[in-house]
């Protein structure tokens, strides 16, 4: 049977900048947990499959700010200590449960002791402490495509200056090239937040601000991802019309869309990619397939809620180890039954087989209902779901990839390969939106977070002024301006308003936001003063360069004023330059 459809996992790997920014419960331990429970197990699974000769492919996103941290020697050193410490805690539990005469808990403690010991061996020996290098090797071999993101996961639609949108994307692309030795062709827009071209300005001449796809086209990026509703509610060109007024940090905006008003809207489908924007053939969008997503995310029937799987929320009062399983719906936390790793592993095999059959069924059905048209499924998830939140999730991923690699009807692929080999046939005008509450910007702009946006917008304008004042700084002045740019990027992270809105780490996120805002303004004050830095200024600069050190090659000049212009300097584009 010939392949009638393509499938790619799209795993979005991201954590906020947490280097030397606290430990437990919020801070650098976020990274240590994710390395131990997600990134290392994922690499183990992908390398195992490759060594078995399984011809798998998938898309793995690594945000630039996460990549900077995974490659940081300080974080690597801290992780080794973290894993060794937990192996020791589990070993202590073995003795504690042995003394209590509880053989079941003793054996579980041994399981965790060996699990963390394997973590250390894998990190140090199999991957040489270089997780980014390990992912790069898989991409170089053609097993994965690594997609990029904006530098610090900045929420692009709510940034007020196009210099900041450009700076976030350009810095992210530059970091990707430095880490992976090639340019990216796929990108995860932070929070799947998209904004089309708009006319902005209620008094005086309006400025046309480019749609986000225009920045991607200039960089040679071919595909981005969107939430399901964005595509299914999108408007194919020539099928709808509209001009809408909407809030933007308290400032009205007028959306300009050149469409035929007499025709009705026609929904899109996540089984097809679409060109986006005014230049068909440049940038495409892939929408998240909801049915496959719900099979994992659904609270009522999603796999991670199975009774056999490990309970995330109950932890041992002495060591913090998670010795219990979910046990079924409605089971109180204190009544959770003991975890059985062997039973849980067997369930992952059953769930993997079910998912493989679901993907095949969906693509066969789409082909049958659309005259044999080749359909695609992009199944998008936060990478940290697998292993961290759903302990058995990486084993499930491994089983799905192994199963689909054997499928006679489904082709395992990557996002960019879909666009290259099954190019979109239609152009779509996407609505503004995100994956957040109501598909809007509400999760990041609401009554609890609106105080964050005026300082961000003020910093954007101030950065433009500094770039104009010093068009070609060198020496200490250039170092200072580059650090101002780093603090702006860190200030713009979407994680801070997200954590405030969700309440997951409200006080921590507010503090981190305020710190980066203060650091930006302190450094900007120094940069605006003429003459060399005094001793206090040098101490401040050197301290922050060590503390906030991502993107060593950041160039403050990417923030030069460019309102209404998404092109590379000089009006060129990577796509044009490379043919």
Structure description:
This protein is of the alpha/beta class and 579 residues long. The protein has a domain of 99 residues: Families 57/38 glycoside transferase, middle domain (immunoglobulin/albumin-binding domain-like), CATH 1.20.1430.10. Helix content is 46%, strand content 10%. It is built from 18 helices and 15 strands. Helix 2 runs parallel beside helix 6, helix 14 packs antiparallel against helix 16 and helix 15 runs antiparallel to helix 16. 47% of the residues are buried. About 5% of the residues have low confidence.
Layout: helices, strands, pairs:
Layout: E1 5-13, H1 29-52, E2 58-62, H2 64-70, H3 73-100, H4 103-126, H5 131-140, E3 144-147, H6 162-180, E4 186-187, E5 198-200, E6 207-209, H7 212-219, E7 223-226, H8 228-232, E8 235-236, E9 245-246, E10 253-254, E11 274-276, E12 284-287, H9 290-297, H10 341-369, E13 375-382, H11 393-405, E14 410-412, H12 415-421, E15 427-429, H13 453-469, H14 475-491, H15 495-502, H16 506-528, H17 535-547, H18 574-578
Parallel strand pairs: 1-2, 1-13, 1-14, 2-3, 4-7, 7-12, 11-15
Antiparallel strand pairs: 5-6, 8-15, 9-10, 11-12
Helix pairs in contact: 1-3, 1-4, 1-5, 1-11, 2-6, 3-4, 6-7, 10-11, 13-14, 13-16, 14-16, 15-16
């Amino acid at each position: 049977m010939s392949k009638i459809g393509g499938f790619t996992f799209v795993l979005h790997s991201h954590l906020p900048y947490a280097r030397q920014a606290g430990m437990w419960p919020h801070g650098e331990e976020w990274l240590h947990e994710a390395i131990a429970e997600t990134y290392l197990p994922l690499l183990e699974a992908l390398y195992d499959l490759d060594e078995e000769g399984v011809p798998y492919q998938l898309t793995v996103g690594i945000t630039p700010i996460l990549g900077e941290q995974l490659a940081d020697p300080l974080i690597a050193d801290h992780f080794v200590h973290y894993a060794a410490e937990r192996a020791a805690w589990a070993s202590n539990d073995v003795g504690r449960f042995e003394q209590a005469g509880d053989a079941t808990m003793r054996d579980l403690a041994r399981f965790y002791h060996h699990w963390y010991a394997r973590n250390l061996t894998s990190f140090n020996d199999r991957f040489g402490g270089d997780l980014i290098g390990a992912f790069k090797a898989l991409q170089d071999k053609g097993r994965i495509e690594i997609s990029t993101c904006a530098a610090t996961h900045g929420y692009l639609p709510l940034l007020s200056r196009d210099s900041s949108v450009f700076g976030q994307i350009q810095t992210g692309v530059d970091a990707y090239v430095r880490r992976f030795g090639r340019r990216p062709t796929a990108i995860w827009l932070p929070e799947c937040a998209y904004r089309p071209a708009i006319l902005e300005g209620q008094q005086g001449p309006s400025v046309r601000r480019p749609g986000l796809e225009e920045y991607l086209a200039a960089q040679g990026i071919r595909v981005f991802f969107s939430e399901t509703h964005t595509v299914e509610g999108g408007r194919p060109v020539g099928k709808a019309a509209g001009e809408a007024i909407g809030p933007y940090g308290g400032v009205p905006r007028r959306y300009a869309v050149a469409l035929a008003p007499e025709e009705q809207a026609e929904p899109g489908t996540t089984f097809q990619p679409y060109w986006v924007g005014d230049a068909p053939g440049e940038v495409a969008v892939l929408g998240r397939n909801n049915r496959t997503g719900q099979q994992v995310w659904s609270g009522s029937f999603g796999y991670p809620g199975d009774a056999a799987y490990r309970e995330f929320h109950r932890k041992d009062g002495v060591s913090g180890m998670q010795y219990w399983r979910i046990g079924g719906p409605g089971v109180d936390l204190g009544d959770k039954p003991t975890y059985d790793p062997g039973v849980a592993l067997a369930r992952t095999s059953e769930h993997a087989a079910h998912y493989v059959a679901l993907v095949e069924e969906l693509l066969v059905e789409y082909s049958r209902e659309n005259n044999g048209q080749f359909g695609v499924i992009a199944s998008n998830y936060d990478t940290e779901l697998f292993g961290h939140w759903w302990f058995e999730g990486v084993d499930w991923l491994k089983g799905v990839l192994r199963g689909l690699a054997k499928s006679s009807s489904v082709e395992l692929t990557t996002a960019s390969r879909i666009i290259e080999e099954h190019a979109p046939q239609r152009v779509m005008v996407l609505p503004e939106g995100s994956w957040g509450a109501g598909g809007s910007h509400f999760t990041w702009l609401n009554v609890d977070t609106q105080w964050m946006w005026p300082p961000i917008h003020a910093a954007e304008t101030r950065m433009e002024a500094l770039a104009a004042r010093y068009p070609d700084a060198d020496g200490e002045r250039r170092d200072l301006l580059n650090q101002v740019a780093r603090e702006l990027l860190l200030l713009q992270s979407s994680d801070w308003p997200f954590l405030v809105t969700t309440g997951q780490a409200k006080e921590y996120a507010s503090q981190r936001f305020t710190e980066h805002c203060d650091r930006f303004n302190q450094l900007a004050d120094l940069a605006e003063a003429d003459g060399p830095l005094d001793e206090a200024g040098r101490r401040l600069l050197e301290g922050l360069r060590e503390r906030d050190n991502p993107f060593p090659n950041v160039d403050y000049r990417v923030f030069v004023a460019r309102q209404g212009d998404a092109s590379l300097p000089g009006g060129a584009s990577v796509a044009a330059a490379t043919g």
